[in-house]
Amino acid sequence: MVTALTLWLLTGWPGDEMPLPVTVKGPEDLQFKASAERQYLVFNLMVSGRLAWERGDWAVAADKFEQLLKVPELPASVDAAVRPFAIEARQKAGGTPVGPLAPKPTEPVKPAEPASPAKRPLTVAGVVSGGGSAGPGGAVVFMKRLDGPTPRPKPGKGRTVVQKDKRFEPRVLAVTVGTTVDFRNDDPLFHNVFSLSRPNDFDLGLYKGGTSEAKTFDTAGAVQLLCNIHSSMQGYVYVVDTPWFAQADAAGRFTIKGVPPGEYEVRVWHELASKVSSTRVKVDSSSGPLALSVDGDKGAPAFVPDKSGKPRQPQLGY
């Protein structure tokens, strides 16, 4: 096979003389010409040295390779490819070989500059009040950015809702979208966990104590948990589509870490509130604790539904 190099040699190599016949009409042409001549010089010395090597002309090969190694700012890959041949050619031709490949000087690694106070993530804390007869405990506080996009959160890991003593524990669990929740039956009897909350509705079927079933939640919103056997069992999974969220403790206290400074809408969901409350806040280094409130206007449901949504009488459950 005839290579491009062989064809060039057969049809006429421009030779060692410089400069190349490139017309210069302006600054751009001059820069192009200088770059072309540099590339040609590197190629010419590299190939002519190699051809001398292959015909056993060690002195010429050593001269060509050593000239090439002296080219300023020679790419490290070219240096690494040529230097071993330059050393061996000089040894065979007689004389002192060039030194071994020297490490390419590198700029000292600058330590990462700490984020300025104006950009450093902050902790948002506060207290939720309200929640009616249930109190503020379990309220889900989450933040959506107003002055930019809210990043999609990572799915949570190892989230579990236990059925114990015919109750859901915890009664309320906040998770991020894409999280898989394990529903573990720790009772010595059967449970059938389901939900009618669309589009997160599901039915895990009947399963015995000591086993579990799982459900992945892909859509934000409240998901009411029910058991088709025990009408007294109710709970919630609340799915958020933001990385900045927390659940209030029994006293209503919450903490959200890693919040970038900026403008936000803070929302609060509670199982006894008919709607999600919201307020605008600015997060910066001077921000203090937030005082949030949530309604407790939502009374107990008139009936507990079965899988088809029809009423069940709680007193008939067990």
Offer a concise description of the structure.
With 318 residues, the protein is of the alpha+beta class.
Query: What best-fitting shape do the alpha-carbon axes yield?
Result: elongated
Alpha-carbon Rg, integer = 37 Å
How much is the average pLDDT? 86
Major sheet: order of its strands? 5-11-10-7-8
- Strand elements, count: 18
Number of helices: 4
- CATH architecture grouping of the largest domain: Sandwich
Taking the alpha carbons of the first and last residues, their distance comes to 87 Å
Structural class: alpha+beta
Q: What's the CATH H-level homologous superfamily of the largest domain?
A: Cupredoxins -  blue copper proteins
The helix fraction, in percent, is 10-25%
Largest β sheet strand count, sense and barrel closure: 5 strands, mixed
